[in-house]
Amino acid sequence: MNAGLLLILRILFLAALYAFLGLSLWVIWKSISGRTSPTAQEPIPPLGLSSTIMESSSAQIFVTPKVTIGRSPDCDFVLQHEMVSARHGVFSYHHQQWWYEDLNSTNGSYLEDLRIEEPIVVKDGDVLFCGEVDVNISIKPIS
Amino acid sequence: MTLTDAGTTRRPAFRPALLLLVGLFVTFYAFALALAPSVRTHVSGFQPELRYLLPLLGWAAGITALQFGAKKLLPRHDETLIPLVGALSGWGLLSIWRLSPALGAKQLLWFLGGVLLMIGGMSIKNLIAVLKQYKYVWLALGLLLVGLTFFIGVNPSGSGPRLWLNLFGVYFQPSEPLKLLLLVYLAAFFADQIRPNISILASILPTLMMVALVGVLLVSQRDLGTASLFAVMFVFMLALTTKRRRFLWLFPLIIAAAGTAGYYLFDIVRARVDIWLNPWLQPSGASYQLVQAQIAIAVGGLIGTGPGLGSPQFIPVAVSDFTFSAIAEETGLLGTSALILLILLLVMRGVVISRHTKSTFGRYLAFGIAAFFALQSFLIIGGNMGLVPLTGITLPFISYGGSNLLTSMLCVLLLLRLSADPGKRRSAESSQKTYQFLSAVLVLLFVLLFVKNALIAVWNRETLIARPENLRWAVYDVYSPRGRIITTAEEPLAVTTGVPGEYQREVLYPPLSSVVGYTSGLYGQSGLERGVYTYLRGYGKPFSEVWKHQLLYNQPPAGSDVKVNLNLSLQKAADALMEGHKGAVVLLNAKTGEIYALASHPYFNANTLSDDFEALMRREDAPMMNRATQAVYPIGTLINFPALAAYWTDAQVRYQFPELSPRLDYACYLAMKSTASRLNPLQYGCESASADLVAGASPEELAEMMRALGLFEAPAVAVESAEAAPDPALDGDFDAWARKAQQTSVTPLQMALMAAVLSNDGSQPTPKLVNSYQAGNGAWVAFGGNTSAVDVFSPELALQLRNQLLADAQPIWYLNGHAPLENGETLTWYIGGTTPQWVGAPLAIAVAIEGNDPELTQQIGSQLLNLLTP
Hints:
The complex is a heterodimer. Chain A is an alpha+beta fold.
């Protein structure tokens, strides 16, 4: 009886251990792949982008977790300027932050005179310099 | 703006499921450990060991406190860190408790202290900033503590490097926190380097000096494991912060340089490297620990023996350096893979936190901590497996060691803080490629561990388990009874006494000790205990039953009884006649080969072996040798038998008695004096007659006759036998061999088998000491093997030979012989047997006495044969 019970305990402890490992792996995987915060669960602070090109200014507010910018009309925020690449860069929201990543644009993206080579966190009031276009960033806190 | 409405439920900062699963795992493990002793001893009632309750409750309290503290103080902390630490520390605590409850209690106190320290650390608001700001202060403090060990250092075990400080009875190893402090220093230093690529050398010089200082300090304290870890950590940090992967190429360079220097400077390094390169050179000496560790992993196999059912006591000091192997034995590849995966997850968690941390310092620190856990684990687990040389590094959270546990917990505290508060300063300099590369290097280390683990536990399993260094059979004997050794008349010779957990082996007729043998974890096994171990130990039972017992109890089933052909009354008579003499008697059934008596004197008592062993080993008369099968005596003038047989195989001289010189030597004179009624140099083994006979036969034919009589191969019996003399055909020079033919070494058993040919009309039986074993269903199963007799020569030749050797007025024949022994003594031989006039089963006997006493051998031989007269 004891022996059978011990065997069951052995199976159970391994099962609990592997279940824990599986769940942890899943949690870690989700955080690595950056999809930890589905929009349905977490509110996104609205991202406001505005720019002035040839005296014509445009401004938009986004609440989607991904916002692409560039010359192509497919982009969420279109910058009609020859120094801007077709797909210049992308804003994304994860880890309670708005991040900006340059998409290997020809003329690069700059923040505070530093060229952006890795995804970086952007904050309210930042001015992103794409090609020769200034993009003003405003992030409103969640009400 | 429906999105914000939908998103009002915030994700909880921790998932109860993670902690719940960890709690279940540790609880099941503790219960399994508590139940194991009653399973081992086959107790029928439910009597769990309550001592595992304390670590379980202590651990649960600690982890709960930690979780609540973190939830309150660091609401946005990483949700997997505390469960991971919980799984590792719970497993570690229970494993230490299982190996040594006293050390387990200490470790539990350290663990609870660590929990308090972590909660305290969580409440310090700007802990990370303070760490960074005063980096030199922390490092200096760490160095000071290590420096103190030079003056007031102690070693808790009383000898060895004095690396500990004694703080009111609590031993503390300052080099453990120094590892973390150095990490903090390096991270802070490199974070302040704005443009490290201006001049690499100039920018790393201060750290190089610091690390060198630490290295010198540790090396002079003989803390070489920690020193090597520092060197590796430094290179790692260098590669990370300068984003120059080529620094990693320094690894092999540094290791080779440090290894070579250490090899020639320090004996301990040389020993460790030699052991690592050739663990099987001294399996019972220097590399005993490593060999036992690998055997333990192999014994664990895929599923392990079960918690509490293994034998980690075979690995010396498993509790600190070899905890991994001890865990491997009891949880198998499944368990250890999970353990390695737990550590890997902790490491990956550190890497992810590093990626998300915004301050450069925090990022370096988190990555450094991840690498620190990874490298430590790799060095010690790899050391356990023989993948890398052994270093005295401990396994984080698992091994016994308070300072190490505290340091590891502080590392996790820092990770928790960094995960909860990614920092304010923005920085765009994290280089993804370097990160990916370095993370890949860390993962690769773990892949190596997985592969090696599987190799030992599955691929090399059988080879390792079969090693003579694996003494687990001795443990099986204590918990599961061996079968009895009994005679065919059901008289017990060796039995198991006692209760499960305290079984002991008892030899009921001690003069048979050299045949029955002994079984002891200390001295090994011998005789029948070894020869029919498989059956005595229960492996002769059906596979399903053996498998079931192994799975449930980690024991083979109760052993089968084994019957031997020995006849106890004949054996006792032989022993009585041999009392006080040195030599051996073998009496067997010439037709069937059943061995009726196998006496060897002087003898030892297997029951008092542990008291007598040293003295027995020192005695020159070798009482532990079974002279009947292991003594190699020269055949001497017994060569008359094969020589005359070989002479008569020549058709031209068949059955003509050769002319023999009648010259007597002292030994054959003595032999003749006691019984002979006429001058018979053949039957009494006179040397001159032997010389004539050997000269008369052709060397090739003599060799062939001796080969046919089985003198060039050791007879297969279930006990240890001496190696047979080499066949002259191998050498090819028969003439040279023939000149020394009388020096051919033989055992008394071989002589008895030679005698059996005459008693059995020219055919030789196979010797049979063991008769049968009791199968699972109670039936006796005869031992198989070759049972048929082999024709050596014709019945007519047997008759003619016998006629030359007949005794007066009795249906028996005999042949005396003697030979000089190496120590100058004379060996007296007597072989004999029955003639067809004998009414019972045909018999053959061989008697050997170390000493010139033919009267005694004749007396022993004829008395034993006559005992069997119907």
